[in-house]
Every structure is written in C-alpha cells, then in structure tokens.
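Section 3.1: Structural characterization of target chains.
Under the original work plan, the team committed to producing a structural model for every single-chain target entering the pipeline before any wet-lab resources were allocated. The record below documents one such target. The sequence was received from the expression subgroup and is listed exactly as submitted; it comprises 150 residues.
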Amino acid sequence: MSEVISFRPMTVADIDTVLQIEYASFSHPWTRSIFTDSLTSYNCWVMFEGEQQVGHGVIQNIMDEAHLLNLTIKVLSQGRGLGLKLLEYLMQQAQLEGAKDCFLEVRASNQVAYRLYERFGFNEVGRRRDYYPAVGGREDALVMVCPLFD
C-alpha cells in the first residue's frame, strides 16, 4: 500500500531537509540562501509521501507566465512517478495564479527530466549555451514550454 501524497507551502523550517534532498540530487545544487530568498519571491512547495518529505518545487509567476525554477525528488524515491505528481501539482498551482504557459530550463544531459517534461506536454523551444555550471566547465540548457489548460 502506498502512502498518501500531500503538498504544502515550503517554510524556513523545511530548508534543512530540502537541502539534504537537493545536495544528494545535483552536482550543482541550489544553496540555502537561494532557497531562503525564494521563499519571499516565488511559490515554493514541499511534497510528502506519508510523513516523509520526498520532494520540492519552486515556481515564479509573472503575469500570465510561469517559470519552473526547481523540481527535485529525493534520490531514493525516484522512478515511482513522484516527479510527475509534483509537476502536475506545480502546474495546477501556476494555473490557479493565472499562468497560461510555463517555461523551464533543463540541463541538456538530464534526459530523465527531459522525458518527464516531454511526457507532461512540454516542448523544446530553444537552447541557452553554457547556461549551467558543470563539472569541467559549462553545460547548455534546453528551454521548454508547456501551455496550461484545464
């Protein structure tokens, strides 16, 4: 039997666990100060499976556009559809705020994330050269967009 999935707004008290998940997931994770600043500027969410915090996401809404800034699932919880559940929830929240489209950047090498976004309905619309720091240099970002409708 799987645990109930739930979401709530991120608070300062969540950041230690958010950072544990973030640092285990990425070679160049967001820092404490980025998350702290995000709490006052963006819509930040945490995802739970039962009592366990298993993911987080950050969205920026500007007028009728949303920008997905961060979507992270705990490494040990990956591969079970939780990324899609978190993405669906974040897109619903963006839509409730009036967003008609959502944009994101994803590392060109991150094929797992790319396939998740594509499965949801995101389409690649561009490339930002040398956008991300990478081991031994920089890496391109693929720009994707998804229309948000009911």
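The domain at 5-147 is CATH 3.40.630.30 (Aminopeptidase).
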